[in-house]
Amino acid sequence: MRFLINGRFLNKELTGVARVGREMLRALLAELAERAASARPDITIAAPDGVSVIGAREAGVRIVRGPPNLLGEQALLPWLGLGATIVSFANSTPWLARRSIVWIHDAHVFEAPESYGRFYRLWHQAMMRACTQRGFQIVTVSNYSRDALIRHGAKPGRVGVIYNGGDHILSEAADMSALQSHGLNGDFVLLLGSRAKHKNLPFAAAALSQRLDSGVQIAVAGLGQQGAYVGEGLGASGRVKILPMLSDAALGAGDVRAAGVVIPTVVGGVWQTEAGGEWWGAPRVVWKSTA
């Protein structure tokens, strides 16, 4: 079989979805480079103009000029991939593809619609429905997300799970000096998440502020990603420090040095707290103690 990888994500900002695509592509090229030429599948990458794909030549993978935007993806990519299975890592694939394998990372556009702008929400809702109608193979990142996609119409037999990994953070040595440059010299907790409403960063920061010793800082990373929701007053407390986008080396240092890593990741209804505040979704906080 022939495969065409939809590389539109390669010129997008480094969100979690784009990061998964880049790491999947990097791992694929590294694996292919270890194979004999006769044992490699026929793979082409459609990459936007000006994007460099490291490792493609060593892996025997061709690069063609691909569309840089959504319109080009829908109108041009099916013709570039005639006869091939189009592989898309980032939530979107051409509706007119003959065959496609597409990563749909979650069902948040259905279950947390307030987190997204109107066009983005409607488009990705339509995308999931189109993938189902066209019989495309959907890949998602957890059994939770698989169940959610099925609740919203995906066919169980066409949804598989490939879990996300975190090994990319080990590819660079931890840069401990980066923590000092951001003023993290004492005890701190690393709070990770984007601006999306369902990430609950304001609630998590407030809850940590109430429960942790006063000398423990709360370092928030991930707000460089754009979104439809920004938590009011997230950095109002002096102990909550909003970090810029971190390199892998700096983030690795935070993971090693932090007293704990908190990743609030929630979807569902609205829960009331004792103080009268709202936790948007079912509370599912991941706490990783490094002490």
Residue-averaged pLDDT = 84
What sort of overall outline do the alpha carbons produce when their principal axes are compared?
globular
Oligomer: single chain
Percent strand: 15-25%
Radius of gyration: 21 Å
What kind of sheet is the major sheet?
7 strands, parallel
Poorly predicted tracts of residues: 267-291
User: Helicity range of the residues?
Assistant: 25-40%
Structural class: alpha/beta
What are the salient characteristics of this protein?
alpha/beta, seven-stranded parallel beta sheet, five-stranded mixed beta sheet, 14 strands, 21% strand, disordered C terminus
Q: How would you characterize the overall build of this protein?
A:
- The structure is a single chain.
- With 291 residues, this protein is of the alpha/beta class.
- Helix content is 29%, strand content 21%.
- It has helices at 16-33, 70-75, 77-80, 108-111, 118-134, 143-151, 176-181, 201-211, 248-257; strands at residues 2-6, 42-48, 62-66, 85-88, 99-103, 137-140, 159-161, 188-192, 217-221, 240-242, 260-264, 270-272, 278-280, 285-289.
- A 7-stranded parallel sheet has the order 3-2-1-4-5-6-7. Strands 10-9-8-11-14 form a 5-stranded mixed sheet, with helices on both faces.
- The relative contact order is 0.11.
